[in-house]
Amino acid sequence: MSGPVIEVQDLHTRYGSRWVHQGIDFRVERGEVVALVGGSGSGKTTLLRQMIGLLQPARGSVRVFGESLFGGGPRRERALRRRFGVLFQHGALFSAFSVFDNIAFPLRELKLFSEAEIGDMVRLKLDQVELLPEHGRLMPAELSGGMVKRVALARALALEPELLLLDEPTAGLDPDLSDSFVRLIQQLDRELRLTVVLVTHDIATVSALATQVAVMEEGRILAFGSLDQIMHSEHPFICSFFHSDRGVPVEAS
Ligand SMILES: Nc1ncnc2c1ncn2[C@@H]1O[C@H](COP(=O)(O)OP(=O)(O)OP(=O)(O)O)[C@@H](O)[C@H]1O
Fold it and tell me: Which InterPro entries match (predicted)?
């Protein structure tokens, strides 16, 4: 496929009478890892929700793989949605399902595979996120924070998506766990040649993963470019964001 993986044009979003996005233009090219950063409440997660079709634009458009997430008919929309995987902010595992059944869920929904095939695929996904087959028997309540993220990532990868969307992938993890989760995403990104969009507040995550950075403020994209370009911006908001006490373990050359 040629053309961008995601193309957002003149996007306006509102919750009730409150406008959250006021004219967003944004493109994600194949193979890029784009980090959405910005102040709290600037509309990052809402933009991610638009990209996965959980919200409809009030104005403007969101196209994924060249198609609108709405209006193509149920079969076409389902086919389009199978091409991306989502890691939600707190993992969003089904608490009544085991790890195995959480990862199997999107595979079973397809009604294309036998239980034996699903078993093989779930074990492969567990291995990809560096968990053991026996972890499949655990319930979400028995998992550490790092394991929840890995299981949620395995579920997001279950249908072998081309596009992966991650909402705050390292939130709630201590620095060591955060580093090892970022390394895992890096490795999978290389192996699976994914296109990735992630929302994060963590500059270390941006520095390790992102090929492009979009800085959001008050419902607009303030700047878009490589981390190096963004780091050299003189915009006061960007300066305070990237050079604050949150620490910038980034060697911008
Ligand atoms: N379901 C909702 N209903 C009403 N308002 C909402 C809803 N979700 C988000 N908002 C509001 O929209 C604005 C943007 O929220 P969003 O979660 O997209 O921001 P964010 O940049 O991801 O913030 P954070 O970094 O704090 O997660 C905020 O003011 C938020 O309160």
Answer: AAA+_ATPase (IPR003593), ABC_transporter-like_ATP-bd (IPR003439), P-loop_NTPase (IPR027417)
